[in-house]
Amino acid sequence: MLKAGKLMEDLQIINKNKRMKSPIVSIIMPTYCRGAVYLSRAIDSVLNQTFKNFEFIIIDDGSKDGTFEILKEYQRKDSRVVIIRHEKNSGLPALRVNEGIIHARGKYICYQFDDDEYLPNFLEVLYNEIKTKDYPCVVYGNCKAEIKSPDGNVVETIFGKEFNYGLLMNYNYIANNSVMHDRSIFDLVGLYDPHILMRRFSDYDLWLRMGKEVPFIWVDKMISRVHAGEKNSLADMIDYNVTKLSNIRKYIEIPRNDFLRYDNISEYDVDDIENKYNHYFRQKEIDYLKRFEITPYITQNSYYLEKNDKYIANLSRPRLRRLLVTKCDFSTSVDVTIKNYTNRIANFPYNYFFLDEGSQSIFTDADYDHDILALYRTIGVNSTKLLEDNKNQGKPVMYIMDDNMFKFHELGEEFSYLKPTAQGYIELEKQVSGSDLVVSYNPIITDDCKKYNKNIIELKTNIPYEYVSTKKNAKSKKIKIGMFSGYVRKNELKEMWELLKKISKKYKKKIEFHLWGMNPKEFGELDCEVYYRPFTHSYDNYLCAVKNSFFHYHICPLNSKKDAALSKSAIKFLEGTVAGAVGIFSNVSPYKNIPDNMCIKVDEGLENWEKTIDKAINLKEEERMKMFNNAKKYIIENYSTEAQVYSFITALETAELYSKMRGKKIAYFFHDAYLGGATLHLLKHALMLRELGFEVLLCTTTIQEQIKDLSQYVQRYNLNVNILKFSRYVELVKPNAQDIEDARGLANWFSWNNVGLVHSVTYNTSVGIACKVNKIPHVATLHQFYKNEVSKDDIRKNKLIDIVHSSSNKYAKMWSDNLLVPARKMCCAIDDNFFSYYDDNVDNVSRSKEKIKILLSGTLQERKNQSNAIKAVALLREKGYNVFLDLIGYDNLLVSYAEECKKIISENRLEEYVNIRGFTENPEDYYANCNILLCSSMDESTPQTILQAMAAGVLVVSTDVGGVLEIIKDNYSGIICKGYDEKSLQEGLEKAINLNNGEKVDMLTNANNTVRMVAKYDFIKSELVNLYNEAFEESKNNPPPNILEEISTS
């Protein structure tokens, strides 16, 4: 959760010692990048009041456009101006107003917005009224509002009328800058609500809360003006329609006064909706608000988040699930594998409960109602029956194996119950074979399970971030060596004991051995101090003890001769690092794959162990710490619970999808056989599901049959492309006779090829009809929205799509509103190789560059606006900037436009500086060698090229197009151009070029944090599988379209 106090940490009061001691009125105005004209108008209208006894508190919410300098100049001229400055932008004006209130000294409070104005007698009129009252109250006057529409027209209206609380509940008629009230009212109702959902409603909400407690008094005089609809205003930046008014109404009714009091405001969670308020909203409503309101805010302002929070901030699901885990007996492995996620991750979408295998027969299914069953290393007859019962009910079942049950018999007679002929082994085979999905934690386990079940996901073990993130310093002069294990490792320790005797004899008082879980007394004495800690079955107690301890090294010998011993996870690597130790491991699975710069590996043989431990004891502490810090960073990024949340959820939801698909295939319908952005985006989705074990079919239309780019490209994945007859549209249209005819052929093809789910790109009516004929879910990827030619009634009667995917919230909302189905944003997943360039590109920022390399990616076409980008480069070169532009993307599809671009290059003599490179299958090579990524487009959804640049550490300059503002925050994670013309592009590029190194690094850091939250592969895969599961749910709820009657009767 993001607490208000976190957003207030960088508060600075400028020249606070020069403030007025006891002003009568405190006027509070938040501002952010308003620009000199509007800002000066607002400030001047306050300072020129006929009533003079006031302080004017202006809170600068991290402006980057010179606003702070303007404010300081006003303060220099007028001591009534109080500046509160923030280096970071919160985007929450109500929060900044609260800061003004907290630091205000006046008896009365007034408000101003930075694009509005007071009339000269504003304060005089309201003060003359309020001073006559001997009780706390709110006085307000009339306000003239000038509302500018997107087409530039201005509509005037008047705010203000006789107070009526019932009428106020219907709508807000009191303008923010027409109010004066006693400051003491905040003691009754609390401060402004700075919640993300309240950004456009915080004034209205406050009036409603105040109206319940104190009188409102109307003064029928015009005292202020509001200018709504200005560029960069709050209303311009936050889509009113996105926040469903019904949800806001529900939120406003929630009692919140106590949370918003002075003493509590710092602890107030500005993004919470699942915890304090979850019983006011359905889970689907919570999911909607998170996806369209809260998550976009969090990703744009990720600089406020702690590292572990960034991993899980976007976690949301429209439905919660109950997970039943059963095992012969509870063990700490359940804590690690399951409960680290279900019980530690905030708002995890699965509730877990445990049932031991022996108790299964006591209960009926109704007694432990659940949505998914996890068999955890079970081998009993009861579990086999439970599996069969769940499968018969259509409930997904997964088998979890983090120890190799198929090889346990190798470890000795005590495991004879798992010999291949034993009943336990036979039940194990049945359960692994019968499960929808097997979850493995080791490649050897994976290979053994594949003999029984091809649906396998291999996960990594995990450890909560909080345990790894603590700092560890060597305080002991003695070298402390630990070994964490249970009795199962008795044989390995016995073999090592003579070696440990030699080491202890050599170093005696210089070293200590600490054995956790195994009593060393049965092995004999050592010549150094030896400490023993008994094994504990409490995972929390164990982890806390490890965290509070310190060791220089921990040793983990493994018997390399038996698969059972090697079929382990790297859990000791994680736990040892929590204790501050560098691991010394046998150079076998699972430790052989850990990078060499963060642990010490030992080849087989006691003499090698002796040499290695001896060398470690004598290693310089700075060298040991370097290895430890490498391990710590690596574990946080690859093994922390938070970093693996989406991988674990993917496994759970993949089991559900397997259960629903019942062995059927997924068909992907491509609108275009050229390798453009939308085609590559859909292909990534297909490859993700194929990676999870689903059989996928790629299809494109006969119109594209002669274009071989896609079919040739997918050969590397051993896939082919099916050519089928269907039409595709970029607009929402009614099916025509040809679409219906094509749908018949597609419906037959679906049946012949055992298709159970379809995912198409663009609006495909015939594909949608065929899906409904076959009663299979239809997911549609729809990016830009252009036009709707179909009535709401026709859409309602003929739902041909069950759920929509778009790459931006902007268009997801438009398609959802027009198709009357759920929609969600998923950016294109960005490959890890782009992220791999980040460190080098950031390091290169500080190096002087003779050349400034600009990259522009995309098919040469008018909507991509490359012609103006070339002209912008010409303008920059005229001003003396040594800039170079590479254009990558198809240059042979729209020949006339390509020729126009070449002509501009020639006319401006840019042949040496602008290169049209054509299509490349390896665009990442360009991101490794450029300074700026330019997006000059006039029509986009969310360009993949921007996401790739953010991942690679390349500074982004973009037009305000499509969903770009959802991922790029101007001046914080990139530069947004003011327009699409060459002058605007030139100014945007010039601004980026002239940033100092610190500003560039800050932008690159913020951009990289954002793209890691919205476009990492594991996150998108998890979202995609959930999307498909939701498509099944929506498909069940959607009635058969009327158009099916036309097919059946023709």
What does this structure look like?
The strands form five sheets. Strands 1, 2, 3, 4, 5, 6, 7, 8, 9 and 10 form a ten-stranded mixed beta sheet that branches. This protein has a seven-stranded parallel beta sheet with strand order 25-24-23-26-27-28-29, with helices on both faces. Strands 12-11-13-14-15-16 form a six-stranded parallel beta sheet, with helices on both faces. With 1050 residues, it is α/β, with parallel strands linked by helices. Helices cover 39% and strands 18% of the residues. The radius of gyration is 32 Å and the shape is globular.
Short structural summary:
The protein has 1050 residues and is α/β, with parallel strands linked by helices. It is built from 41 helices and 35 strands.
Secondary structure layout plus pairing:
Blueprint: H1 4-7, E1 12-14, E2 25-31, H2 36-47, E3 54-61, H3 67-77, E4 81-86, H4 93-103, E5 108-111, E6 117-118, H5 122-130, E7 138-148, E8 154-159, H6 165-170, E9 179-182, H7 185-189, H8 202-211, E10 216-228, H9 234-237, H10 245-252, H11 283-300, H12 307-312, E11 321-327, H13 332-342, E12 350-356, E13 372-376, H14 381-392, E14 397-401, H15 423-434, E15 437-440, H16 443-449, E16 456-458, H17 465-468, E17 479-484, H18 490-507, E18 511-516, E19 529-533, H19 539-547, E20 553-556, H20 563-566, H21 571-578, E21 582-586, E22 600-602, H22 606-617, H23 621-638, H24 645-661, E23 665-670, H25 677-691, E24 696-701, H26 709-713, E25 721-724, H27 737-752, E26 755-761, H28 765-774, E27 778-781, H29 792-797, E28 803-806, H30 809-819, E29 823-825, H31 832-835, H32 838-844, E30 852-857, H33 866-878, E31 883-888, H34 895-907, E32 914-918, H35 924-927, E33 932-935, H36 944-952, E34 955-958, H37 964-967, E35 975-976, H38 982-993, H39 997-1014, H40 1017-1037, H41 1043-1049
Parallel strand pairs: 2-3, 2-5, 3-4, 7-10, 11-12, 11-13, 13-14, 14-15, 15-16, 17-18, 17-20, 18-19, 20-21, 21-22, 23-24, 23-26, 24-25, 26-27, 27-28, 28-29, 30-31, 30-33, 31-32, 33-34, 34-35
Antiparallel strand pairs: 1-4, 5-9, 6-10, 7-8, 7-9
